[in-house]
Amino acid sequence: MNWFSDFFRSISDNYGHFFSWSDITGTLSDPVSWGIIGSLVLLEGLLSADNALVLAVMVKHLPKEQQKKALFYGILGAYLFRFLAIGLGTYLIGFWEVKVAGALYLFYIAYKGLFKGGGEEGETKNRGTSFWKTVLLVELMDIAFSIDSVIAAFGLSNKVWVLFLGGILGVLMMRGVAQLFLKLIARFPELEQTAFLLIAIIAGKMLAGAIGYEMPHVVFFTILIAVFVGTILYSSGKKKREANRKA
After folding, report:
1. Which residue positions does the secretion signal occupy (predicted)?
2. Residue 207 pLDDT > 80, yes or no?
3. Other Cβ atoms within 10 Å of 54 Cβ, number
4. CA distances (Å), 205 to each of 98, 212, 215, 229, 230, in order?
């Protein structure tokens, strides 16, 4: 019973951080926290740009007003899932076994994305389902899209508001500017692979944390920027070489 009471107390404390004004202001005033939040938003945008289009297809058969409502309820479900997952996950991530399991899962996701053609390209068909059934399907799809990014987020931070703000802005990014990320990926196709490379780097950071080594934030952000900018330069150079060959 002591274990159960300690577990319950720890979980309650974690959820308490959501309502702690000092935690909120501490997060908003910390440049490192914003750097991590920006990293999460960027990663979510690159991984989920096409997911917004999948969701749009899922609600396409509904009237215009109901389409907006279904997508809005889907966002609420995604936020609720993140709220529950972050509160529980910030407790579990304290165990090295959980960190190792999370790191191995992220390595698997990265491997599948880099070498197996990216993974989750299921067909989404319009079956003319009812409004509430469509909402349920959108909720489930939002949760499925969230799982990988939530696990990756724990590789970067265990601060509740850093993770939650990264998730909120990431979901809004997925819905609001999906076209921007799609255009960015269309212009620099290698960015899609870069997203999985970043997941592998985050997995390495999480695995290192499991054995007691915490990668300095400056090192991580430097690697992140170098990989992102390097990918754009490589992609631009590749296009120029191909253009010169055709000329």
Report:
1. none
2. yes
3. 17
4. 14, 11, 6, 20, 20
Summarize pLDDT for 53-103 with one digit per residue, the tens: 566 667 777 887 887 788 778 778 777 877 777 777 776 667 778 788 888
Sequence-ordered alpha helix ranges (H) in 93-177: 96-115, 131-154, 160-176
Quick check: 86 and 10 in contact, CB under 8 A?
A: no
Nearest to 218 by CA among 229, 210, 226, 209: 226
Examine the pLDDT at 34 and tell me if it is beyond 60: yes
Helix, strand, coil percentages for the chain (3-state, nearest 5): 85, 0, 15
Whether 192 contacts 110, CB under 8 Å: no
| For range 2-18, the mean pLDDT | 67
What is the DSSP track for 167-181?
Answer: HHHHHHHHHHSHHHH
User: In 180-193, which positions are buried (b, 16+ CB within 10 angstroms) versus exposed (e)?
Assistant: ebeebbeebeebbb
How far is residue 78's CA from residue 82's CA, in Å, rounded to a whole number?
Answer: 6
CB atoms within 10 A of CB 233: 11
